[in-house]
Amino acid sequence: MLFLVVMVSFHLVKQSDTCSSLPRLSLDGDYIVGGLFQLHEKYGGTGPATDTENRKPEVLQCHRFKFSSASYQQIQVMRFAIEEINNSTLLLPGVSLGYEIFDYCSDLLSYGAALEFLTQKGRGAIPVWNGTNYRPKVISVTGPFGSSQTISVAPLYMSEMIPMVSSDSWGNKCPTELKKQISLLFRTIPSDKYQVESIVRILQQFNWNWVAFIGGDNDYSRDALTVFQDKIRPANICLAYQDTIPQNQSLIGRLFNNIAMFNVQVIVVFANVEFVIPFIQKAIDLRVKEKIWIASETWSMNQELIKKSQIERIGTVLGVTVRRHKDLRGFDEFINNTVKSRHENDPTYSFVIYSAVYAVAHALHNVLRCGTRNCANSEFIAYPYMVTEALKHVKFKLDNQSIEFDENGDPPAHYDIVHWDLVFKGLITDAGLFHSDILSCSYFLQAPVLQCSSECKSGSRRVQTGFHTCCFECEICSDGKYINHTADPYSCIACQKDEWARNGSTSCTKRSIEYLHSDAPLAIFLMFQASSIILISMAILVLFLSGGRLCFFMLCCLSMSSISVFLHIGKPTEAICTVRNSVFVVFYVACLSCLAVRSFQIVCIFKMAAKLPKAYDFWVKHGGQWITIITTTVIMLFLCILWITIEGPKPNQITLYSEIILDCTYGVIPIFYVIVLFAYMGTDLPKNYNEGKSITFSLLIFFISWVISLTVHLSTKGKHTLSVNPFSVLCSLYGILFGYFFPKCYIIIITPERNTAAYFQTAIQSYTLQPR
């Protein structure tokens, strides 16, 4: 059906004698390379075709449109490349290449030229296909330029598999929709998607995220816009405004009004040069100043634009262009010898046209099995489909650049980044390189802040204030939260339970685990003091060898109580928490029971003996002191067991700002109040009898130290509180040593005359004789 439609179309065009009047340039050869170039551009011409003319199947007058010097140069590059190959002894020796080039200035003429290429070589007509091969006029086609034009003519060559080696990027529709069906498309310029990627990378490089995208009314711009919108989302770039350049130049001013309204300073202009020229001219006329312009490869090297009057007003122009090369060797001489007049030099597509012709030549060279001197299949006739297959595997070096095609017929993505020096008009300098998603910039621009909102400071999250994600306010993350700007710049993330963060943090820090480490100076001090108590107790025990069993029992209890200090050192466990408190409570209460008995004995001596002699005799005869001590200790053991069984001390984690305190729950000693009561009873004793006062002093130290301990635990939290409990233990033990035993040691060693029964009896008698 497609072939029938083509034949009918060709028949209509042929009736108007279209082919005979097509503007063409030709050279005969063994194999012909076809070329379609837009030598005259309909946009901007002095007499554009009307819609009525476009609908008529008749010849259009291309000379009425604007002459394209860039396309003219491309035609000359193709002629130069073919002549260079014909003069080469290394490529296609003994085989000549010819060309037939048409001026493709309208879609209608493109069909006429395309059908002309399908005519049988030497006969001038398209034969009706009868199942046998025929040899079309051309072995390949270069051009046309433009994705819409390429897609429109490519199906015509499917039946004969004539390869199209184009210098066009085809937009994005061709690779995704048509390329799967048409495998004869090759190009020597990267896909537009890579060009768009390079532009996005430029915006990222200079941190510009508030941009406008201006395109032309064709697939080249529309397809690029689709890719651009996909690429800018993950790059945190906002499209503030996008529009299409109208063909009516009087309407272009509306675009600049909108650009000003949205306060956009960076403008990506992705359009063909015929759209860009009136757009930039309008910017000059409207005195648009100090903008950043990002140029697509279609106009980034345009000499007409860069030399416009007052172009320097518009601001800074950065552009993307296909890899530039030095002037083709011998090309200037070729132009001087073959062309009467020279046009403006636009090297944008010179090398890609040059490499396209060479790619076809290398493919044909391989089909004909050519060497350096001759071709093994010189008598063999190569058909287009053979060249198409050979192009898939061609690989060669040209001007130190590798020319090859991937499975999609695409070359590697290489782009140059250029900068327009608008002070010295006509000078375009290299600014960087884009290759395989990597941007290398050699142009150091003092980039202004061109954003809807300035970037938040480290540790602050974005709070979106409008439709665009680039417009936001900043809010600092609170304590215990952090922000990862790379993953999500809009959310503050809570730290884990074992982590902490100050307000305005970008990461969390592990909380330090705090307890009394054995190698800490404070822990060493505590252990030294506990060891000192044990040694002092042993020394006093030696001094009190004849002091009786009660003193021996008290000193042993003091030593055992001091062991609990060692259990405060190190990481607390449930067993350690239970033992360390129980050890201190039981042995210390046993020691206090001895003090209580001593207090009661003093009361008995000084009060009960005088007033209740029978009660005193009962106390002495039945060993009342040991009964009291054992009973008190057993009660304390029972309370401890009950305490542990119901709700004993356990390891406890106290989470503070930057640390986790490992400690044990705190215990209470109820017997303490009874001891204080007995101690108080000893305050009304003889002034010259100091044992009661010593007991009172010991208990006062105990009372003060534990009140301080309880107050600290209830009022403050931190690693410094870990030492409060063992300090209280040490103070309690030292209180008994200093308050009870040291005075006795002083009497024994310094004033032994006071350590006699006579002195004791004298104290009793003087107390009993006092008037009441």
UniProtKB/TrEMBL annotation:
Any Gene Ontology biological process: sensory perception of taste
Transmembrane segments: 522-545, 552-570, 582-606, 626-646, 666-683, 695-715, 727-749
Keywords: Cell membrane, G-protein coupled receptor, Glycoprotein, Membrane, Receptor, Signal, Transducer, Transmembrane, Transmembrane helix
Residues making up the signal peptide according to the UniProt record: 1-18
Annotated InterPro entries: ANF_lig-bd_rcpt, GPCR_3, GPCR_3_9-Cys_dom, GPCR_3_9-Cys_sf, GPCR_3_C, GPCR_3_Ca_sens_rcpt-rel, GPCR_3_CS, Peripla_BP_I
Subcellular compartments: Cell membrane
SUPFAM superfamilies membership: Periplasmic binding protein-like I (SSF53822)
GO cellular component: plasma membrane
Any one Gene Ontology molecular-function term assigned to this protein's record: G protein-coupled receptor activity
Topology term for the membrane: Multi-pass membrane protein
Residue ranges occupied by any G-protein coupled receptors family 3 profile domain in the UniProt entry: 546-764
Keyword Acetylation: no
Keyword Heme (UniProt): no
Domain of life: Eukaryota
Major site of localization recorded for this protein: membrane
Gene3D superfamilies given in the database record: 3.40.50.2300, GPCR, family 3, nine cysteines domain
PANTHER family referenced in this protein's UniProt entry, alphabetically: CALCIUM-SENSING RECEPTOR-RELATED, TASTE RECEPTOR TYPE 1 MEMBER 2B-RELATED
Family, as annotated: Belongs to the G-protein coupled receptor 3 family. TAS1R subfamily.
Name this polypeptide is given: G-protein coupled receptors family 3 profile domain-containing protein
Natural source organism: Oncorhynchus tshawytscha
